[in-house]
Specification:
single chain, 108 residues, mainly alpha, Helix Hairpins, 4 helices
Length: 108
């Protein structure tokens, strides 16, 4: 099943709500907590690499990062906080990055 990012966000958010991850009212505190969980998932990617857990574990942790991010995107879109298409902005950003200088002008 191939979904674009906007479709994926809708599916992920439905499942997250069904599983109780969005009980209660929408709030900026809740969004902040969800973003902290994205950070923890990024750390799990690092740990999978560091502990040489292999490709499957690494990619699974990367998937968790993406799932959490698109879930937050959809929650914010449902609340009217986000008005832009994730697909359009990602593709636009890819093109923008294609035009940028080496390391985007940074040292690292």
């Amino acid at each position: 099943m191939m979904l674009n990012l906007n479709e994926m966000a809708k599916e992920v958010h439905i499942v997250a709500k069904q599983k109780g991850f969005w009980d209660g009212e929408y709030s900026y505190d809740k969004i902040g907590n969800k973003l902290a969980l994205v950070h923890s998932e990024v750390t799990e990617v690092l740990e999978a690499i560091r502990k040489d857990k292999g490709s499957g574990a690494i990619v699974e942790e990367m998937a968790d990062v993406i799932i959490r991010l698109v879930d937050i995107y959809q929650a914010m879109a449902d609340e009217g906080e986000i008005l832009h298409s994730l697909d359009e902005v990602v593709y636009s950003k890819i093109e923008k990055n294609r035009q940028r200088e080496h390391l985007h002008g940074n040292k690292f």
